Batch of 4 targets.
Target 1
Amino acid sequence: MRFVGLAIRNFKEMWRDPISMGLEIGIPAGFLVIFWALGRSMGDESTFAPTVLVPGIAVFGFAFLLMFSAVVLARDREGALLSRLLTAPLKPRDFILSYSLPYIPLVILQIAVCFGIGAVLGLEILGNAGLAFLILLIMGICCVELGMILGLLFAANQVSGVGSVIITLVALLGGIWIDLGTIGGVFYSVGNALPFAHAINGARAVMAYGAGFSGIATDFYWVLGYTIVFFALGVFLFRRRMAE
Amino acid sequence: MSDGISNNRFAIQTLSLSRKFGDLVAVDNIDLSIKKGELFSLLGPNGAGKTTAIKMLCCLLKPSSGTATVMGHDINEDPMAVKQIIDISPQETAIAEHLNAWENLSLIGGIRGLAKTEVRKRSENLLEMVGLTKRAKEQVRKFSGGMKRRLSIAMALVADPQVLFLDEPTLGLDPQSRRGIWEHIAELKGKKTILLTTHYLEEADALADRIAIIDEGKIAALGTPQELKDSISDMQVMVVKAKNLTPDAIQGLKKIYPEVEATEEGVEIRAKQLSFYEIVDCLRPRGVVIQSTSLKQPTLDDVFLRLTGKELRE
């Protein structure tokens, strides 16, 4: 449990960066209100219904979290502190855990903000809210693990560029703004191969149609599988970086 | 464990330790034996291979060939055991800037498996030792360079390592801060094995029990500061204070004594045998006004110059 000390440090560093924290919470909250207002203005309240918007915007928020977590790791990697920490008897998985775990409260907060604002805007969850929350939570952790991979592959100044591309791809291939079924073709195939659309569709199914776990099991395990793979890949890359 | 090089008298032993980066040989077949409780210094200019050597001993870098043991644990075969008993204050200021001094010490204590109460107790003593008790709850990004260095050393000590690596601990500090850190390092002498790298001659001279002079990845000389100076006892150094010292006069001296160095106040001449009259006869006809001459004891700088043909300057 030696990684806990480092996880606490990373947690404090993150929460003591008020601008980044404000953006992490403010972006999904702001987008949710803007798109809801847009829907009302266009008279299209089904496309922009809270049950559609809340899961999509939550995942969109995770894409920013992905970039944030990648920058923190990349910055530490470039500095001397990580070298010092690497002389401690910690394993690669300890490092990945200590850089990932501090984001879980932020993921929970992001989802809670989306659910809260959604409720104000008229969100009615037909199924189990906890199940919708859970699949989004795993999606959030999945994004943080992907952030770890980016933080290990790229320098801090490169991460923002790569992160912008990933945010756009998440929006397009996750079906956040436009349903993947409507787009079809390659976008549909690629989008369904990735975890983002599965998290959104799973949460939407619970919220709008009252689906239970069996109804979203494929989506759930799809997202969970990606999370485990990204974590393992992060550990593998960290070990390689240590060897270098 | 390489039994061939294991010896319980020694805290650190290296056997043909080498590291290459492409075609560059950063550390070239180093063989060292550092005794337990010794303060050992690797002295050399930037790029000599000091930090690369330390990184290998701390298991941050794999050797290209050769190996080393730290308290009997092989760095290649059992890096986790090595990491359990060492700590390092790296060359760059390796601290968490958004945390305060307490939290930085707790971080290191935590990842090294110390109980909270133990960390608190040790942190109190260490903060007192490095004079940071009053600033302990401030975020360290507000600290001066000297304060950050002091904290960095305290962080390296919080887990009470058996072997401590100090990589250029006073690099870039003003003379007053440097002397302050020397005092802290001197307090540790004899209590733990310390490997200190530096390119400051006076630092190695003032602190080290033994010094290895390293240049281009190789050990050029090894001994106590006095032994190293004695090794060039056949060399004389004459300090000449003079006015109107022209380039022509210096060239004239160099024809007699190849090692002539211009200083602010005159010249320093090094040779196995110096003749006062020869020097005067060379300078006076060239209009040089000699104010004083004196013979100087050889310094580590002279040792370095003799061994490498280069000067070791800040």
Note: The first helix of chain B runs from residue 50 to 57.
Target 2
Amino acid sequence: MNMLRHIVALAIKELLAILRDKKSRLVLIGPPIAQLLVFGYAASFDLNHIPIAVYNEDRSAPSRELVARLTGSPHFELVGHLDHDAQIAPLIDNKDVLMVLHLGPQFSETLMRGKTASVQLIIDGRNSNTALLALGYLRTILTDFNIDWSRQHGRPGPPATLRIRPWYNENLLSRWFIIPGIVALLTLVVTTVVTGLSVAREREAGTFNQLLVTPLRPVEILIGKSIPGILIGLIEGSFILLVVVFWFEVPLRGSLGALYLGMFLFLLSAVGIGLMISSLAMTQQQGILGAFLFLVPAVILSGFATPIANMPELVQQLTLINPMRYFMVILRGVFLEGDSYELLFNQYWPMAIIAIVTLSLAGWLFRNRMN
Amino acid sequence: MKAAAASRMRLFGMIRKESLQILRDPSSIAIAFVMPVVLLLLFGYGVSLDARHIPLAMVVEQPDATSASLTGAFQRSEYFDPQPFNSIHAAQQAFDLREVFGIVWLRNDFSERLLSQGDAPIGVIVNGVDANQARITEGYIQGVWQAWLTSYARSQGVELSLPVALEPRIWFNAAVRSRDFLVPGLIAVIMTLIGAMLTSMVVAREWERGTMEALMVTPIRISELVVGKLVPYFILGMGGMLLSVAMALWLFDVPLRGSFWVLTVASALFMLVALGMGLLISVVAKNQFVAGQISIIITFLPAFILSGFIFQISSMPAAIQVITHVIPARYYVAILQTLFLAGDIWPIVLANSAALAVMMIIFLGLAWRKMQKRLDA
């Protein structure tokens, strides 16, 4: 009973400390909402309106048909027609176009003779991912052109064709992949910022030692200091979820319970890490540095933007101690694949272990790190 | 004449004081040198969009020579790691458990249809959750398919008659290594963090302790104070920058096709913008707690997501593209990607440098004005 009263009192004090300062309040509420909206639209690998120029030396009906298919696609935007070679390089160099399609003077003649007409495509490879995706879009258009042309002109088609079907995200919208990840991204930033400085600030002000000599036990201090971070994280996380489902219309196919269990464990481990950093730090500057040093790798090595499977083995092992990695799988699994508790079990327990380890370390550090 | 000499003396005194302070407190040296090395090492190796050895389930219902040649084509590809499955049911189970990323399915009648009427379907299922990887995998699968078609036609003694064949030539990065474009971008992201953190935290601490006010009652002018604060951190930041560039070149083998001097000048410009941003944060925030919060929130994620480092700016909605213009890292990422991979392309270098120069003036000017106001208040 006493313990509960202690914890509640401390949690209220902590919440007040965070929310009393107007600037600090603003920092916790304003930017996450703004960032959610901006990043929701910005963070996508989908390409549209890829600027392309066509250098068509042939100008016959078949070549015009091919070009028309290109301009009809929402992925491409025809910027201009070229009439000699020398125009290609400056356009690509200055990023005026991402690619130039070059049809030689013999294009339709070769095509009509039943031979294979080759077309050149010059792509700006500065962003290799964009280059590969744009090439993929163009290939699809060309494959369709080939199939239709063969059918119309009685040419034999390829003996076997691919029937590719993507599951869970039929139209391959990369927004569906990225936006659920933003839930983890923003809640992690907010909870780390809230907890990462909470002990360090009191250490610097000298009030932490006062706290330690009160009847409060370290466990109570630990819980009292954890509650604000988890509470703020849960509230912001829920708000972000609402926006993801109702504003960005990402389908939520699995159970909300499985998602919240994941969010709770994730916040618990994030708070644990934040408090651990904070109690290790002697000054606020060290605290913020520590928060940064955790946050930046945690985000980049979480699979948020680039897949963990592409990392070298050693770095993959390192991601095992990153709680965001697990929550990322849970978010995408529940949203797109409709995963259940059982399927996500292997994501839950590592976060629970991280939380237990970091929280106990933080509690231990409260007493044992004093100057 | 005398005034100028006095000003110079005050300025040098200020620079000396700041440098001593930096040398005494190792944390800023750690921020400037240790952080870029650690982060670049971690990310240079960790961040990649190139998939290799993608696990694929191969379901061949009627194994024969033709299907064997197709599975052989997948086995030879460096992109795939095909695993045989007896039934589509078993393959789907592995797919649901995320043990395989995709399924290639040749039905009972595959070879029969191939020989009789052509147009035999090769069923492919890919996990579309990560749409970007799914698209790139589709591209790789198409590549394997086309190579197999050609070799199959040759084995039948005919020439494959595709109406139109594509000959792609990828400039600046022929091997399409994603690391070559990600590492220069990472330098921009890391330098944004370091520049802003170096100044924002350190200067906020001075406000908090009141030593800033103490400085201001000396005869030193605000402009001298700003310059004096910036010079040592600028040198530190440029040191970190140089280290990052060296790592990009020699550790990650990213080519530098533009000139080193253009890179240095553009980097210096960007460093001033980042330091100016940090200074402004510290003046606005007044205390370390808020300064730390603000610099985490407004530097890292925007530089990561809105700078064009990984997500293509030209594909964002128009309103978001407008917002990216206030992110300094955007200009620096464009300069770096071009300088490293394409060379000294002046229209891009100059336009983006001009934008950086404007931002530098705005940030430093605002910080200077806010400082004056604070003294009045």
Note: Residues 9-44+173-368 of chain A form one domain.
Target 3
Amino acid sequence: MMLHIENLHARIGDNEILRGVDLDVAAGEVHAIMGPNGSGKSTLANVLAGHEAYDTEGIVLFEGEDLFALSPEDRAASGVFLAFQHPVEIPGVGNLYFLRTALNSVRRRRGLDELDVMQFLALADDRMKSVEMDRSFMNRSVNEGFSGGEKKRNEILQMSILEPKLAILDETDSGLDIDALRIVAGGVNALRSPDRAMVVITHHQRLLDYIVPDRVHVMAGGRIVRSGDKDLALELEEYGYSELNHAGNGDPSVPVGATP
Amino acid sequence: MTTVTFTNPVPATSTSAAAQLFATLGLPPSVSGPTWLAQARHESLEWAKVHGLPTRKDEDWKYTRLDALLDVPFERAEAGVSHQVALATLEAVTVNPLSTRVVFVNGYFAPNLSSLHGLKKGVTVTSLATVLAQGAVGLERVFSTAFDQYDHAFTALNTALAEDGAYIQIAADTVVDEPIELVFLSDARDTPLVSSPRSVILAGPRSSASVIETHAGVTGRVTWTNAVVHVLLDEGARVDHFKIQDEPDTGFHLALLDVYQGPGSQFSSSSIMLGSKVARNEVHVHLEGEGSRVSVDGLYLPRDEQHHDNVVLIEHVAPRCVSHQLYKGIVDGRGHGVFNGRIIVWPGADGTDANQTNKNLLLSEYAEIDTRPRLEIFTDDVKCTHGAAVGALDEEALFYLRSRGVPREAARALLTHAFAREMLDRVASESLRTHVETLLAERLSVDGLVIEGMLQ
């Protein structure tokens, strides 16, 4: 199993956000995680990438290794990648420099030779085509002044350059118009492969028209309350999350912390 | 527009400390040169005796302790005491080996280390001692009129002691393309020394020049540089001044850059403060000619126990002048950074456009910053803004970089460089930019992070 999550809890202070998540993702699979706002989807993504704001309990194994034993940079080197919902702007650091520094950091930790500027540009040029970006992106500061769509394309570009084993996409579709969505989905689909797994977090079924998942999970109240194949997403689209009460083993209509 | 109440600074006095310091230094020294100079030295000493040394009760010295400096039994540096400054020291601080270069050791001209050949017609670059020996025609102003309410005993002390420094004169309509380098090296042995260089830059009408002023020294020695630089810009002149203060962190550095601008002139001052145990860099600009423009920028990087104090005073005297200030601090360890920036818009300075910004990055929980951006406005038709910010590295940006595989320490260094970047981008001369980039990389980098090409 590429990713095994068992009874995962996460909290910030007294606020428990994840309340026992169980999930298994095998290599080659694409899993979609859907759910209403506040259900814990982004927290799950951040916890997997190593965000230090959370106190966690439970088991998370990545290729059989304890993920919590690794720093964020070691997780990246091992092949975990998070496409951020809100990519950070970093004025003063060029995008080309950033991407090359990231790739070379990861390559160094993987025991591979670093790429020089020319080698890196050749790679980047190739990968930029798949997300329809041109060289001008490389000369700008990281995400600074990028439109929402440009930021998301930059995330996918980073993913295609770093070639992770496990890619987690956190609401990569949010705020995208249909053209940007098509470009981003195209970039993601180009990276699907038998030895790579993807976890696609989304609020809308729309994205799953472009990135067709093998499994769909519904999160509510900090747990996965229902799982199914791609048809589950269509069902959610039709009936909404509130209908989940009938089928799920959790009760997402009840706010976190409230007494039913 | 923000209006701030005017405070008339009454210098707090520490006359006994002054008397003690002057006694240690053996003041008054024997003086040579023109009669007016002897008079100016005498008057400045009297002024200092009356007013005393500044203390922390003085508004402009509130955050800077002088105890450590006053504890050292300094002696006056003297001319002709030839310490052998290693050529490697000089090479390391030279920006461009082909430039015109004037080198001073402990404040005294070192002709054997200087490079003054091939000067363009209309360009004079020499030592102040040479000019004083020739009668110093026209220099009375810079020695005699320095004492108004803003001055303090250290400027007075420089006037009393200064015998040498750089002298640059650019004739009307003369354009000097390559920066002129002024290098001040401290080289004490067992005895702690105070050097008192005084430099003068006279830019004639419509002339243009740039000057790089570097202060460095021999590691581990205790020295005190008490420097004054005057810049006088005639109508339409342009001078760009860049200062690199990289003295050993066992030393003390107090400096005043005193600037008078004529109509339509343009001046820029940029500084990077890396060295000294206690350093105070003061920039005082008098916008006296209509339509003159100035930008005053600084980057200070105190760490360990270093103390870096930046004092800026811009006086808008004439109408329609423009002033910009951007100071950035990167404070690490138990370092202490101070920004004390003040803009005064005097009555009649209509159409003033002035702004000042101070941003600070604290890299450790013990790092300390004091920032005081101040505006004092005595006329209506002005556009003035100011602001200050103090913060730590952005945790979300750190996580973003780390999630891409950049190790924590490299990610911190990368974001710190990015913060300093804005100052580097303002440096026009390529050789200077490369030199400063190298200094910053030495100061901020960690293993495994290549800074080269960061903004490509």
Note: The CA atoms of residues 58 and 327 of chain B lie 22 Å apart.
Target 4
Amino acid sequence: MKGRYATAVLLLAVLVADPARGAQAPTRAVTESQVHEVAAELRCVVCQNLSVADSPSEMARQMRAIVRERLEAGESPARVIQYFVDRYGEWILLSPRRSGFTLLVWLAPLAAVAIGFAIVSTLVWRWTRRPASASTPPRVDPAMRERIRRETETEP
Amino acid sequence: MIPELGYGAAIVALALALWGAVTAALGARTGRPALLLSAQHAAVGVFVLVTACFALLTYAFLTFDFSVRYVATNTNLGTPFYYRITGVWGALEGSIILWAWMLALYTVIVILRHRVSARAFYPWVLTVMLGVLAFFLLVMTVAAPPFARSSPVPADGRGLNPLLEDTGMITHPVALYLGFTGLTVPFAFALAALITGRVGDAWITLTRRWTIVAWYFLSLGLLIGGWWSYHVLGWGGYWAWDPVENAAFMPWLTATAFLHSVMIQERRRMLKLWNLSLVILTFGLTLFGTFLTRSGVIASVHAFTQGAIGAFFLSFLALVLLTALGLLAWRWDALHAQGALDSIVSRESAFLLNNVLLVAVTFTVFFGTVFPLLSEVARGVKVSVGAPFFNQVNVPLFLALIFLMGVGPLIAWRRASLDNLRRNFLAPVLVGVVAAAGFFALGVRSAIAVLTLALTVFVAATIAVDFARATRARLRVGERLFPAMRGLLLRHNRRYGGFVVHLGILIIAVGVTGSQAWSVQTETTLRRGESAELAGYRVRFEDLTASEESNHFKVAGAFTVSNGRVLGVLRPAKKFYPQEQSPIAYVDYRLGLNEDIYLVLGDFARDGSQATVKLLVNRLVSWIWIGGLVLTLGALLAILPERRKGA
Amino acid sequence: MSRRAWRWLIPASALPVLALLAYGFRVNPREIPSPLVGRPAPSFTLTAFDGAPVTLEAQRGRVVVVNFWASWCYPACYDEAPVLERSWRAYRDRGVVVIGVDIQDTTEAAQNFVRDFGLTFPNARDPSGKVSVDYGTYGVPETFFIDRRGRIRAKHVGALTDGVVRVHVDALLAEPAG
């Protein structure tokens, strides 16, 4: 389950005419959202903790262009990502792989909830098994009782 | 002159703080009031001296005193007046002064408020507060001296980090630090409780308002940080799960857990151990946050610096954790739960579950933040753990928490009967289900968005049900509508303050969902007069203008934005600062209730004939800030003094 | 362990976390080891500022020093430019070639840089950034030392010094060709 927020299909920018781009014809039409999806998994190397999709830096723009070019050339998204991993190492993945050592970080939340839930369940079980006498109400002395009566009876 | 004065004041302050901590501790052990009085005077002295340091540094900033190295690196002759004041806390050394000043201020307030009302705890509370203050003063005098001299004295300074030239700079650190330092007080009381053995409810009752106030400032700091990220950093987002953001978020999570679990201790006298642990954990995470920001151990957009200062913070963190947890272990026997639970289906269980989830999120965020370090230790491979990971794993946990927000306040204490469940939840659940269907019918296809929105409606409905029922009860007794509602809010301000805070969180949740699920963006190169379109907006590039500002060179693009009718001209720019290697993007945007249009300028041709622009239409982001406002109102309501008489 | 002693696990549990954080002082999070070391250097063809083509393949049989730089990279690139020029002059007759690749820059600023430092080794601009990404560059300056058989043998991040260049180039020169 990807569980990722789906970006709505983007409207491609409607350009009046842009000769700067039109030189070579792409072999496969690629939408901005496809580039965005791949770029969102890569870490911008000159920023701190931003994805290549989000970063306003020059380097990220160039990397987005490379992603677009590779997708247009027919490479699958996984292949494009692997291209970057081959050159930068696993560090370039913004989200660690779900296999091997890095599987630990994915299991951590599950483990935390499971262990927490187990502890709480055990405690709740134990506490609901306690004899009722353990929770007798505190004794109220007559002066206090009188005060309570007065206050509850005069309250609007 | 100023460097010597400032340094002298800091040294004396440090000595006083140490003296105060020791005499307070001695006063606690021997019970001699003279010692305690001496410690109090020392604390006041520290406050005066740190204020003086702060004032001296500000003065140095305002008068361009470049003989102070900190001034020379953080300002230059072109820095605008405004930022010469806020720049005081713009970098490491100044931030330590700000922290120390707030701690000193809080210490004085603690003295004034609790000298009489909390006599049993007070000496130890004072000891802990002065001890922590002494540490920060130690950092200020040894590791990061703000008054170090620059030699030679430069003719002009380097300048403030351009990203900090923003209004967020004034409020974000102040709010955040008020939150962090404020959390020292409950921690001090917790240690006092452990040392004196009075581990009952007293320390919790005394610190309730402190916790809410600190929690509130922390929330505010986080929200302003998000706002600053949104409108300055140029990527259109407000939260990146950056390690330092995480470091501020974690104490917020545990403080939230604490706010809830204390209610169980107040009602049922249970969870003493847990509450003490939570407070210690919260303070520990606060120190961890300062460590992370200042040590450079994990790379982050915030990282101030590297060097010996990291060792200082880590050592102090170790000292605090081992001492506090050691005290906890020492008092173990006194911390056993006395009460019992009547039923699994009860508010106690809901609160326990709330705590489990909040701590689970904290653990997840912590583990994810330090995992790169762990990976390097274990196998020498560097990995990144970024936003996609945190978003994916935390979303289910947050959804569960939202659900609990609806269940918790209404489910009965001790044992929830079937009747109680039906009365309170049938209508909201139905409304929630109908809402889910409605959203789906309206075209919302993302499962998470539908779920989040439906849960939000469910929780809002529970709040409405509760408020309506209580109001109706008052109306039946003869009160009129508005006085009844007002009376409810004021009489039960804790409860309804909490509800309003929950409402604020719900609004934020809607904002986050909307911005994640429905925001769109595109990037394109336009020539003069050309337009781009996105989500019904048309953006036309008019031209570029270059201008010389007081401390930077700015190139701004003029873009006319229209959506049928002309909305205005946005001017995103690139600012070139001499002290920065690459230009800083200056974002321009138009905020709206339901969507913001947001432009970032990229490359441009020198002659202004064309420019690359990134266009974002972000949906529902404003709801996040509105939710923050509502949260503020709720927190204010919750800390009002309790009304004794009926109203 | 007696029942009383289990409680001391609580403070003890803080120790592994503290130890992990302490280890953090020994690593630099900004230094990313390159997976390309030991692998064949990615080929490239660029156009130098004087118009001549610069191709990596054409240098096979020589030791190649590929240096990524930018005119805005101050002070590191400014510090190492004279080092590179010196090394070029010292080693060019011994079968070593220095190639400078300018990234994320404007032609004008780059040409000024080359002229100001009097650089005589081939310098070319990488306008799309493809070569820099191919080499896994994440900042400037970065230098790759390539042996005679076309494999990357070392990567140096940050400004070069004469000593660093000497150590790497001498080692690669000492290896037999082919």
Note: Chain C touches chain A at residues 32-36, 104, 128-130, 132-139 (CB under 8 Å).
